[in-house]
Amino acid sequence: SYNERIRPLLDAIDTLRNMGVMKAYNCLVLLLWETSRLEPGRSINDTPITLNVGKSNAPDLTMVDFPSITRVPVHGQPQDIYDQISQVIKQYITPKESIIMNVLSASVDFPTCESIRMSQLVDEKGERTLAVFTKVNKAAEVLFEKVTVDAVNIGLGYVCVRNRIGNESNA
C-alpha cells in the first residue's frame, strides 16, 4: 500500500536531498526491500521495470526495488532462488556511484540482516549505505540503541519512518 511502500521511500528521498547526497553522487539509489515478496512459483530475471518521472532542474535518479532475499525456495521457486536474487542485487549495488538504501523493519536484528551484509560486501566503510527503518513505533525502545551504537556501520545514516497511529491524518 501507499503508506507502507511509497511514503517511506519518498521520505527517504527527501532526507537524501537534505543531506546533499543527490548532488554528490548524481544519484543512482538502490533499494533492498526486506519486506517485499517474490510471487509464488516465480523465478526472477535481471530485466528492470522502468518508470521515468521528469522534472526540470532536478537531478537524475534511478531506483531499483529488489525482491526479498529468499533463502528457502517455496511454492515452486527454483532451488537456486537465493543465488539468483543475490546475483541481481550485487549487479546493481557494486558500482561505486550507487547508493544503497536498505529498507527494513525496525524490529529486525541488524547484524544478522542479509541486505546489510550484502551492502557491507561492496561498501565496507558504509560510505554509500543508508538504512531506512519502517514500523519504528513498534520497536521504539530498542531502535534508539541500535541506531546510536551503529554496529553495522551505516555511513549515510538512518531514516526512521513511524507508521500512523489510529486516526492520524496527513495534516
UniProtKB/TrEMBL annotation:
GO terms for cellular component: cytoplasm; membrane; microtubule. InterPro entries: Dynamin, Dynamin_GTPase, Dynamin_N, G_DYNAMIN_dom, P-loop_NTPase. It holds the Pfam family Dynamin_N. It comes from the Eukaryota. One of its GO terms (molecular function) is GTPase activity. Residues 1-171 form the Dynamin-type G domain. This is Dynamin-type G domain-containing protein.
